[in-house]
Amino acid sequence: MTGSDHEVEDVDGDSPSHGRALIGTYPNHWLYSSAPSPKFDLTRPSPPRYAITCPQSAISLCTSTTPIVISPSKSALVIIDMQNFFLSTYLGRPVDGAGNKAGQRLLDTAIPAARKGGIQIIWLNWGLTDEEIEHMPPSTRRAFGFEAALEKEGRKKSLPAIDAHGVNQAAAEEFIQDENGVLEELTENGKSKRIYQGLGSEIGPVVVENGKTVDAGRLLTRDTWNAGLPQALDAAYKEGQTMRNQPDVWIHKNRMSGLWGTATPCTQYLEKEGIKTLLFAGVNTDQCVGGSLQDAFTKGWDCVLLKDACHATAAVCDSGGSETTGKYKPQDITIRRSQSTPI
To answer: How much is the CA Rg of the chain, to the nearest whole Å?
Structure first.
């Protein structure tokens, strides 16, 4: 079959008036059917008659638009940047904030459903090397803070530039200097604000559970506390690593998107494993999640955004009104066995 976007014979020999259509070209295609109810089959069923995939080998997802059918063996749940730097309450992130609520929804629903359904789980996280930081473009560096020289009353000092964008917006943006030239941190609600001075900069010590102090490490570099997962998510990841079939996979990324450019470790893994459908979750919806989704869509992967398992610092994105993903607005989906049995 070489044609695309045309009607195909109904699997039961009925008239094409039921509204079945092949979208794309075999073997990379979807199948649309309007009966008994509208759905898109993303499993890429084989010719000659492109039968709708049987319930035993597929999972049905109820989206906010049209239901879809996916193949678990060709699908992955991609969890992006659910790291201490973005979520940890020990860095001042609210325990009841949207990011931690999204993390809890992953723990309660998406991760168990993916495991039960046989869907690969990928943890796609910032994890920079010195070389990657050295060659990081300024457009990316800007989002994570930087230092600017300031001259005032004949004195010079260095302070983080005022920037209301990215994850740095809630961090301190200036220092004060006393009459003796000693720098003092500004405080907020009686607590010192933490200063972030760019990717790879030292975050400093952080007091965590039981009063223990840990070195948070350099900002979003590999094998540091701040680039690790919060405790509950880390336990879920470690549990996933012990699975005999489809153990969880951790993949480092070095840009907002984990699928940018000609090839990344993520795209190479997906291609090697034959994964076609990606279910996106994580933080931030309008930045790393949205960027990865758009690059994945451009490169030809099927893309589904789990609305309630994502978080963005911008309120418009959390409300589902983001335009950053074009017509692919966040989808609020329920995962269940095709036709009947809930996962």
So the answer is: 23
Q: What is the mean pLDDT of residues 3-17?
A: 45
Q: Count the neighbouring beta carbons within 10 Å of the beta carbon of residue 114.
A: 26
Instruction: Kindly report, residue by residue over 72-87, the tens digit of the pLDDT.
Output: 999 999 999 999 999 9
Task: Give CA angle at 148 (143, 149), nearest 5°.
Answer: 180
* E-assigned strand segments in 261-331: 277-283, 302-311
**247, 250, 269: which is closest to 259 by C-alpha?**
269
Residue length, the chain? 343
**Alpha-carbon distances, residue 290 vs 51, 118, 294 (angstroms):** 33, 25, 6
CB 49 within 8 A of CB 68: no
CB 69 within 8 A of CB 59: yes
More confident residue, 237 or 193: 237
Tell whether omega for the bond before 48 is within 30 degrees of 0, i.e. cis: yes
For the chain, the distance separating the N- and C-terminal CA atoms, rounded to the nearest angstrom, is 35
Does this model's pTM top 0.85? My answer is no
pLDDT value at residue 291? 95
What are the backbone dihedrals phi and psi of residue 111, each rounded to the nearest 5 degrees, phi first? -65, -50
